[in-house]
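Archive entry: two folds, one per protein. Generate the first.
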Amino acid sequence: MAYLKFNKSELVNLSYSLKREILCANKIGAYVNTSIVTCNTRRYHGLLAVTLDRFGGDKFLLLSSLDESIIMNGKQFNLGIHNYGGVYEPRGHKYVVDYQADPVHKITYKVGSIVFTKSIILVPDADQVLIKYELVEAPAKAMLQLKPFLAFRNIHALTHQNPEANTEAHDIQNGVSFRMYQQFPDLALQLSTKSAAFKSEPYWYNGITYSDEYRRGFDCVEDLFVPGRFEVELKPGESIVFSAAKGEKSTATLKRKFNDLEAKAPEISSDHEQLIRCADTLVSEHNDRMKINAGHSWLYTGLLRETLIALPGLTLYAGKPEQFEEILDNLIEDNQERLYKRTTQVESPLYIAAILQKYIDFGADPKHVWKKYGAVVKGVIESYSPGVRKEVSMQPNGLLWAQMYHVATSWMNAYINGEPVTERAGYQVETNAFWYNTLCFALEMEAKYGKKGSEFIGKWTSIRDLVKQNYQPTFWNERMKCLADYVDGNGQHVDIRPNQMVAVSQRYCPVDEDVMVAVLAITDRDLVTRRGIRTLSPRDVRYKGQYTGSQYERDLAYHQGSTRPFLLSSYADLSFRVKGPSFQNKVKWLTEGFFADLADHGVGAFSELYDADPPHEPHGAISSALSTAALLEVYYLMNKYKED
């Protein structure tokens, strides 16, 4: 029995099925992403998108879709589906009777007495998608037609009919190849049988509309090129394999390759196994450099903040601690400027101390850790000295002041018409908590494993003490019994946000224990939901309970209510430390809902954010590194405190 399945009544309802997405991603940066009835609703959707180094490492969509038709006794049944400005044509979804997500994505069609299946596999180590078609039941042999829709564009862009496109087909083994524009690779379309024929009928299909882009107010219409169609006869019980790949492949082994990959695909039988599977898809090894993809299918790979936050979850708590240092080493090499000179997310470099603390707790040798990464941590600290960074600088009171006019200098970085929604200029509560934690960690490690008479200790000990002395008086609001979200020239801004909870969850906490307990209490009261932590209290007039509507409306809600699952790891860590094992039942209740949602957005994946109000619909990237990593960390904490 598949872990995730859908039935006919769900699949034929487009308002249901178009919201649920197939996602396959491999280690070298390729992906397959479409709806469960294979109607593309986003510009990012397609059957083969690949990473191209020649274009700066961005992802490019080569094959948008593949329309299938079954012909029997002179009657043609079109199984494809496209949106043309609200009109769906053809309407192949009406023939779909079953979909299952594992061990591979498999769609079953029923046309009268004909039963036909389509199974999709993305090859793990190649820019190649394999689709197996099987005529399971039929009264006689049938003709299968396959019509490819070509895009050849950046996944963030749209394409249109144009005279520059090279529409010429080149014959290759059991198929044809195309290169629509110079500098692009060849897209090879091949079948596992010699009996298949390609019939050239070049035609541009204009006005294909992506409903999710339309709903956001983005450009949503494009033209796709269809070069012709493949035709092949199938007998009842017979199957063929279609391959779309970057470059020509041997067709003699296509069937065996598909069957081998299907046999190796793991059967999913538990929630934790699904988490591990998702975690694996979010670690990329493109060009043999291991990095973390922030989220499928449109977020980027190797981002500083997202990688640092997700790294412990996707490696240590996913059972792959050997990947921790390799990913971190690549991140440090790629982010010298952000770590030591400038970044608009001013707290990001300071995360490195927090994750090294988790690495040591997990069992890493602290002496080795400091010998390898001590210079990095100390360099990060030095970069916050006055005059080094323009966006943030240490003040005489030891605290960090972050400000760039018209720029959001924290993770809450949504913009509307070029202006930040939450600028938070001044002393930020979480940034200064990270600052204190980093100073304490570095000074402790340097004292144990650094050189005797270290100048670093002499310089920064008094500053650490100064931060401790000034942090609580600066942020604590006695009347509200909470920490201010940020403090500027006008005083405290007591917005009830999760940043204060993240601040007091740090290993070295710059506030008294009763303040920590008070912050946890107000977090429980205003911010905790069954789908993560709200980004703003519902009591605030700016609160937006739903992340819906145009991009303007969504940007207003992005950090003004919408929940973030990734914050659950900090919340669980803090709650276990304050409440002990008695928190077990609640944290279990808080995580169960995410697995109930696995059929609601990216099928089998964990979403970036949710509506702040019930029923907490999922939104954002359909497979988020931060969300997946946080849930893995919560599982780890649950087991840890259960054992204790």
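Generate the second and append.
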Amino acid sequence: MDKNQIAEILNHQSVSSQILQTLFFPASALYYELLLRIFDLKYTPFISIGLVRVVLFSLAAGLLVSLVLNLIPAKKLSRILGAVILVLCTVIFCIERGCRSMFGLYFGLATVSTMTGAAVGGFASTVWAGFLNIIPFFILSLIPAAVFIVFRKVIISDKKHDNIIHISTGAGVVICHAAAVLLSLMGGAKNYFTYDFTANNAVSNFGLVSSMQMELVYSVIGMPQADLGSYVEKPPILLGNSEVNAQTQPNENSDVPEPPKEYGFNIMDIDFGALAAGETDKTLKSMHEYFGSLTPSQQNEYTGLFAGKNLIFITAEAFSPYFISEELTPTLYRLTHEGFVFKNYYQPDWTQSTVGGEIANTTGIIPTWIDGKWASVVAAKDYMPFALGNQFAALGYNTPAWHNHLYSYYGRNKYLTAFGYDYKGGQGGGLVIPNAYSWPESDLEMMQATVDSYTDDYVNNKTPFHAYYMTVSGHAEYSFIGNAMASKNKKAAQAAYPDASEAVQAYIACNLELEYAMKYLVDKLEEKGIADDTVIVLAADHYPYGLMTENEDYYNELRGFEDTELVTSRYRNALIMWSASIEEPIIVDTPCSSIDILPTISNLFGLEYDSRLMIGRDIFAQNYEPNQYSSCMPLVILINNHGQGTSWITAAGVYEASSGIFTPNEGITVDDDYISRVKHLVEGKINYSKLLLSKNYYEVIFGAG
């Protein structure tokens, strides 16, 4: 019996056969979602309440497709549309699986659409390697479309369905969707379904189909908003010039003991109380109240230590300290063991890949998703007075910036300009290096092409400089095939680590180029006699998640111990803050992360800024007690990466979201409400990070732009 005979039989179909036809698309939707979930077991438990929500949303979406297609009178058109829908689903699910495989993240449709062209053009070998990783998923994802194309006349027959089938299908859509929404608004997933929605959170908790629906709805009606008033510190501390002497003492309602009289506070003349009283916009009013209620950072013995010096700030692609050794990487070893030595520094994964780390490093703001857009896209249109480029440019410094790969990727040409930099990048962006179209490009060549331009101006004309670099040599894919930096430094890496896997050897080889670049930079500063006048800061954009494949976690091999992306130890990293003027290492044990870099630099250089308007904090501020809650205490936020919640670290201990357990440091006892208060503080910082950019709040405060 061939398929045409089967179709003819089903033209005289019973109610039961109509039901079976109706169920094809719900079954297909569920198949895609379960397939995605099975391939994501490393991060997402298969059996959970999230699975129930995924099933309900999938059934609702599939039933809706069946209803619409069966109501179309022209069955040929219905079959074409059905095939198109299934092919699109295959493509979208494969793209998202590829994103998860390469970046450890699910991206929204808006993000994928804006990245695709540049990614294929600028990261072709990485994209191809990512596709090879998902071939089994790709093959399995073809099944629904293939089945439909073969049996399309069976699944959508020429005979109309009975009205009772249509009514029942419509009722199924309503019931399944309503039940799924109700479950989504209950328990811990409620935030991810509303004001804390991101594609990455939503796919794990509600499924990809639902995530796409939510993204489209929120793009039209706007994102829901949290109860902003709940984050205002109680009692409110509306610190204005009339209520606080910036050079003597904090407000009497401050939640920390009175600091030493000799130190003031990093605040500006902003009367948040008056701003709140005169504001009619509810969101802006809540922002004035919130920022005014925060305790500012106390100035300290390091305030102004580097005043008048030059600054070179480097965001290093996939940097990690575990490849550093005195023998193989003497310059990086020197820089990580001299100057300030941060023993408790973390580089969070902000769920926005390289650009998220770069925004955190350069703005002190948590890079949240804003209406499905990168934080950088919104920041590029904002007034950003505290960005280091703008702060130093206002003092008359030269502020050049460079990136040795595609100059416009992520919109870097726009946001670095908004941050006050004279930016030049590779591949047509003004940076000329010998191997401009290799992959990845050389950090050493970037330094060789640029360092003299600003250092000579300082030596000859006494024009101070703040130079910024975003490197690329350390980029994945970590293989000796298709990675120019790995191939270039292969022999040195293999000689140093003969027993390591190829992935680890290739990663080390890539980062040897960063070592050579830093050696060139330091040698130039010393040769010109300006090493004492210059500060070097280097931090990663993210840890090298490219060392993780579908089957192996080579990052564990590199470090020599095991953990996963669900625990805080994965994000331990190194922060370089070095100047030849620091004669002895200064050990810093304070928990800190990338959003703390900008306020710390601002304090060290004696710049004018308001610590309440930064989400991070000056690492050296001492106006807190380790075992007590405070809005200005050290706080590392490891934002939710896999739908497990947000982990955090304070001077009192570590909270692991994946287990829900807080482990206090030795000898530390905290109050009963400490954990809940810190959780709420973390949530507030995430929400207000989003609002700082989406409301262009600095322009509101300072009336400039």
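Annotation attached to the second fold: The radius of gyration is 28 Å. The first helix runs from residue 3 to 10.
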